[in-house]
Amino acid sequence: MVNIEQMIQNKACELGYESCGIVPLEKLSEYGQKMLERIQTVPQSEKFYQSLNRLIDPREAFSWAQSVVVVIERYGKYAVPDEIKGYIGKQFLFDTRIDENTEEFQAGLKMENYMRTLGLQFVNERKFGLVGLRWAAMKAGLGIIRRNNFFYTEKSGSWVSLQGWLIDKKLELIETTDLPKCSNNCNRCIKACPSGSLSAPYTMSPAECVSYLTTFGGHDLPDEPLRKTFSQCLYGCDICQEICPMNKGKWDEIDDFPGVSELAPYLTPENIMEMDDDFYKQNIQPKFFYLNPEDLWKWKVSVLCFMNNNYQENYKSYIIAACKNENKKIREMAELICSELINK
């Protein structure tokens, strides 16, 4: 007779998830200690990791929770439009967390309907999770965490997203993986990290990460000493994943993600600089939700940073025009770039 754990896993596979596991919450107890070790190793990360304390023991908020169901979504199957290839972090481009037009979002709703039929109480926070999802997925045997801190599966490498539901039953379904560990002699991801955020295996300084600084953490790029390390990154960064030999051959551009090809022409550096607030609020911000509806200026400051780091003569008119922008931070960045270009 098929037990409830297998029924949940079978349903997940039927809905197109790459894999599924179930872990009792007590088996995640080391997560808090690992977070403390990270803070001790990188003291400047303390404020960032303290904001994640809610993930250590979700039972403080959901006293009835006993286990977590974890599923793997593969996004390494989507075509990246040429106009924005290398500019936008792939996980942000192919983000299914709030996009109701995606198969993955609808699969999540169907998964929840199925758990209701099983009589389970559950809760999910699609954007940022209720537990450390990479840790939970590793404990469920669905893959491993590599030296660049990303979670990898055998089929898809690190090009995966994770979803998890707290449930009110103590269930357990642990898989096994044959993935080899990273070689102690491999430090490609560390050497490739443009900002030095990834300074040692299995650790990082989040506030120095290019993905952080080009999204919700980029509050003052004109005064950010690391801004010249951003290379071609406008929003997010994939460099440590792209360089990883364990990701070789793991991306297949076989599907189109809903809306991305239509949106891509508007996300070129030049078109972002010409974008107005209404278009941004209606078309860009709902997808790239790490920035607020009032944060188009952050995109434009990031673009100016990009234009400085990857200067071409056709960028000059955009930089000069930005010197007269009504937004103070845009003006500051443009004026700073002009002074740097003059002094070159």
Strand order of the largest sheet: 1-2-6-3
> What's the architecture of the domain at 4-80 and 89-167 in CATH terms?
3-Layer(aba) Sandwich
How would you sum up the global shape? globular
List unreliable stretches of 5+ residues.
Answer: none
Summarize the helix and strand pattern as letters: HEHHEHHEHEEEHHHHHHHHH
The main sheet comes to:
4 strands, antiparallel
Beta content: 5-15%
Q: In CATH's first tier, which class of the domain at 4-80 and 89-167 applies?
A: Alpha Beta
- The computed structural class is alpha+beta
**What name does CATH use for the topology of the domain at 4-80 and 89-167?**
NADH Oxidase
Roughly how many Å apart are the termini? 74 Å
* Rg, nearest Å: 21 Å
> Helicity range of the residues?
25-40%
